[in-house]
Design a protein that fits this description.
The chain is built from three helices and 33 strands. With about 450 residues, the chain is mainly beta. The strands form six sheets. The chain has a 13-stranded mixed β-sheet, with no helix packed on it. Strands 2-3-14-5-6-7-10 form a seven-stranded antiparallel β-sheet. The two termini are about 45 Å apart.
């Protein structure tokens, strides 16, 4: 179902010439999905992208689970060109006057896109989850689902999927009524406050997608295709949106900028020469399983090794910075929760907690742990052409994020790394993660890689 509306309307509002099918289409769209709260005024003489309106969109968790909003902007958008909110009184920056605790929102400010979470409790918000400057181009697509918002501008792709986002599946609300509504404000915030207007949104159309579509690598797969992939990975009944729960990366960046490093919290590995700087000791949470050989003068990015990381009270997050060649091949990095991870959700039954993140060429993959003996949660997400020459991966309990400078991915799910004493029905409980360089963790010869030149691993306490 598609509803199209343009801020430069037709020269006449007369619908007497509508065909039966077009009239029925508009009526169905209005009745089933959308309702104007404030409709943009018709102004046939207006040639500016500055008309304003507010559309209420109702989800139903069956046939209307996924909304895709396509927006066209002029070359110089300013202010709040769009505000997508979970509350009728959202007004940007995580504000809604306490009408709803489920008040997450996504909005623009100039060329910046911002994702804000709902309230933790009355008057205390989860706040800014993520923002990307210079994101708004002339064509932007935003996808909204329960606990998910994604945005794509033709070049950069952002995905934030978290219980902190939109509550569209009957979740309880501490300060207002339970509902499955969101509000789409056009060249304004939802409340319409005059000091938060915008200019530059020229056209919008939205598409309500079938309930059993999901996202794989940033593109839509139909149910049959996804089921085929699912069968190959031995997991069933998985909607790939539902196996991801995202949380804030903004806080991580603040910690990186403001944290005073001390000796032993960082290790740097040169995969050309094999030179290691920093203290690799168990006391510092680092232990070599296999160390890259020292090869003075080597210019190839082909050194290989595996480093064991042990998490603890002051080692909550591993921040992994990687420098790669322009054309990496194979498994240039592999981060796994099991000592026998070998990629593609495999670990030979050593641990049930065996989640992993790894590359193959320029693609990044996120795989979940086992849900029962011999059955994995499988592929949670993949992104083709993700790897650039500089990639950052952060690992925490039940969380993995990756930033390539172009795309940002963050998955926070109980199906990921178990680093807080979770039980394991196949192996011992532990707080270890293994990081393989230009190979998979097991070192199997058919899954080697080349192109990882340097890796820096830094511990952070949050």
């Amino acid at each position: 179902m598609i509803l199209t509306f343009q801020f430069i309307p037709e020269t006449s509002s007369d619908t007497s010439g509508d065909t039966d099918s077009s009239k029925r289409f508009r009526d169905e769209a209005s009745a089933n999905l959308e309702k104007w709260v404030n409709k943009p005024p018709e102004n046939p003489c207006n040639d500016e992208c500055d008309l304003r309106g507010l559309l209420k969109i109702t989800f139903d968790n069956s046939t209307r689970k996924h909304l895709q909003i396509n927006m066209t902007f002029d070359t110089d958008p300013s202010g709040f060109t769009f505000n997508i909110g979970d509350s009728i009184s959202n007004d940007g920056y995580a504000g809604d006057y306490a009408d709803q605790s489920n008040d997450a929102e996504v909005h623009s400010l100039g060329r910046t896109i911002l994702f804000y979470g709902k309230e933790i409790r009355p008057y205390l918000s989860y706040g800014l989850l993520y923002q990307r400057d210079n994101f708004i181009t002339q064509q932007v697509k935003v996808d909204i689902m329960d606990e998910l918002a994604a945005a794509h501008n033709g070049h950069d792709y952002l995905l934030v999927n978290s219980f902190k986002m939109f509550a569209l599946n009957g979740q309880a609300d501490a300060t207002g009524p339970v509902n499955d509504d969101i509000y789409l404000a056009l060249n304004r915030v939802v409340t319409g406050r005059p000091d938060r207007y915008g200019n530059g949104l020229c056209k919008v159309y939205d598409v309500a997608l079938p309930a059993d579509n999901c996202t794989q690598g940033g593109s839509l797969l139909d149910k049959t295709t996804f089921k085929s992939l699912a069968d190959k990975r031995q997991f069933t009944g998985v909607d790939c949106y539902q196996v991801q729960r995202m949380m804030s990366q903004a806080g991580f960046m603040l910690c990186v900028c403001g944290f005073a490093l001390t000796f032993g919290q960082q290790v740097s590995v040169n995969l050309k020469t094999g030179v290691v700087t920093g203290s690799v000791t168990a006391a510092n949470g680092f232990q070599w399983i296999s160390q890259p050989p020292v090869v003075p003068g080597n210019t190839q990015c082909n050194g290989r090794g595996v480093l064991k990381l042990t998490f603890g009270p002051q080692r909550v997050r591993a921040h992994i910075q990687m420098t790669l060649t322009n054309n990496p091949t194979g498994a240039t990095f592999h981060i796994g929760d099991s000592a026998t991870n070998d990629g593609y959700a495999g670990d030979y039954g050593t641990q049930a907690n065996d989640a992993e993140v790894h590359s193959i060429d320029k693609t990044i993959y996120f795989y979940g742990r086992d849900q029962s003996p011999g059955v994995s949660y499988g592929l949670l997400y993949s992104r083709a052409n993700f790897l650039t020459t500089n990639v950052i991966v952060d690992i925490k309990d039940e969380l993995a994020s990756a930033d390539s400078g172009n795309s940002f991915l963050l998955i926070n799910s109980p199906r990921l790394f178990a680093l807080n004493g979770q039980s394991d029905f196949e192996g011992p409980v532990n707080k270890d993660v293994y990081v393989a360089m230009n190979q998979v963790i097991t070192g199997r010869q058919d899954r080697l890689g080349t192109g990882l030149c340097k890796m820096i691993i830094t511990w952070f306490s949050s």
